[in-house]
Amino acid sequence: MRKWFGKLSLVLLTAVLTTVVAAGCGNNSAGTNNGNSGPAPADGGAAPSGKKEKLTYYGFSEWVTDPAYAPVFGELKTKFETENPGFEVEFQSDPYGTWETKYKVMFASGNAPDLFIVNNPDFPTFANSGYLLDMGATLGEDYFKDFFPGILSMYKWNGKNMALPYTTDARVLWYNKDIFKQAGLDPEKPPVTWSELKADAETITKATDGKVAGFGLDLGLKEFPAQSLYTASDSSIIQVDDSGKITPTVNAPVFKDYLQLLKDLKPSLEPDYATLDHLKLGTLFAQQKVAMVIAGTWVTDQNPDIQPFYGQALVPKYNESAPDGSFGGGFGIAVSASSKHPQEALKLAQMLTSVDFNSRTMSDVPANNASLAISKFATDPAYKIFMDQIKSARQSQPKTLFYKDIDSSVYDTVSKVLLKDQAVDDAVTELESAINKITTQK
Q1: Contact in structure between 289 and 272 (CB atoms under 8 Å)
Q2: Residue 159 clears pLDDT 90, i.e. is over it
Q3: 3-state class of 68 per DSSP?
Q4: Nearest partner of 123 among 158, 170, 73, judged by Cα
Q5: In angstroms, rounded to a whole number, what is the distance separating the alpha carbons of residues 410 and 54?
Q6: Cα–Cα distance, 347 to 197 (Å, whole number)
Q7: How far is CA 225 from the centre of its chain?
Q8: What backbone phi and psi angles, to 5 degrees, belong to 56?
């Protein structure tokens, strides 16, 4: 699974446009492919004679032109053109680093593709700018029932479904079974709740005389620390009503208990927790210097020689009655509101996220039950816990234009509690005020 979910900063479209146009870029029109052309269609499905209308899809080359997926895109192209005579599909793409900037410029300059991959951190700006087709208005609510709720919520705007979830991921608890044994803990019983996580971390740190950190934290990532722990509850950082009004909800028991948990865990954290990012923390776990971490598949991806001492479990939740949860991200498939052929573009978006093609056109985890069930991940024992966890993955707040600023404020709050020993109640009061200030700015 890719590692960029939830980590990509939201760039204002106007700023990107100014920068790229100044560099002489951004002339990617719907009829011109400045990136890489997708695969040619397979034989069969003759189209009627005469001029064909073109539908353009824009994604990144790591999937569209990769030899593992290009034939499937060719199959999809043939199927769509056969079922929709008079239309021709063109797959456009650029490498991820270029794509991330260019697709924003395409919209800001009025040269949008008919449909495209949308990155979930960018979704609020696209939706608020009126760039996206309201898919729910045509498809109806029943169409979206098979998508995982937490991922689907990332692509809702004012209650409307503005994109189809395409990929997703999650974090799980990784724990060291050997160290559990050494500390007198049952290696087959990892912590299930926050209180058990705290107790096990303290036991391990004490049993190893501090040579092994009971729990690892990647505060150096400069994002909401251990967000997966907080999402393993029924709480959210903010609430958004039907009018769009945003109300902070941090001055509540769950968030206060979350801050207190991190504060209580501090003696069990790796000494460098303030500067660690997720990759460095994963390496420390592989080196058996940290007994438990919450992470994605990068732990073994970055440390292929890791010994088989580790176990995986669902993220410990608030209490036994709380819902399961984890941080999740992903990409969606959106249709441009300016497409000349919105109905056909919507049909192609549905085909990309259908059980026939979703799991075969990309390397990540599909975001719906039917596609997940036939994906390579569903049958690989290494992903069993991920497959259980991913259905409850979500983010800690609804998508708004203020998502990034609110996330940053939560990070600052945790930093004050852990690094400056700020009292939890004081930290919560300051955060509530900060969120109100952020969300009421003109």
Answers
A1: no
A2: no
A3: coil
A4: 158
A5: 45
A6: 46
A7: 15
A8: -105, 135
Torsion-angle region of residue 17: left (phi > 0), alpha (psi -120 to 50) or beta? alpha
Domains annotated for the chain, with CATH where assigned, are 13-169+329-391 (3.40.190.10), 172-327+402-439 (3.40.190.10)
**Spatial distance between the Cα atoms of 114 and 300, rounded to a whole number of angstroms:** 38
Look at the block and give the residue holding tokens 């899809």: 57
The amino acid present at 241, given as its one-letter code, is D
Is 440 a residue whose pLDDT tops 60? yes
pTM for the model stands at 0.85
Instruction: State the DSSP string of 84-115.
Output: STTEEEEEEEE-HHHHHHHHHHHHHTT---SE
In this prediction, residue 158 carries a pLDDT of 86
Crossing angle, helix 96-108 and helix 13-22, to 10 degrees? 100
Residue located via tokens 């441009």? 336
d(CA 362, CA 169): 13
Q: Write down the pLDDT at residue 122.
A: 93
Quick one: tokens of 90?
A: 């063109």
- The conformation of residue 323, written as its DSSP 8-state character, comes to P
CB atoms inside a 10 Å sphere around CB 147: 24
Band (pLDDT 50/70/90 cuts) for residue 49 is: low
Q: H helices within 232-312, ranges in order?
A: 253-265, 278-286, 298-302
How far lies 143's CA from each of 188, 259, 395, in Å? 40, 39, 22
CA-atom Rg of the chain in angstroms: 23
What average pLDDT does range 9-19 have in this prediction? 34
**Closest Cα partner for 287 from 202, 183, 179?**
179
Q: Which two tokens stand for residue 95?
A: 């490498």
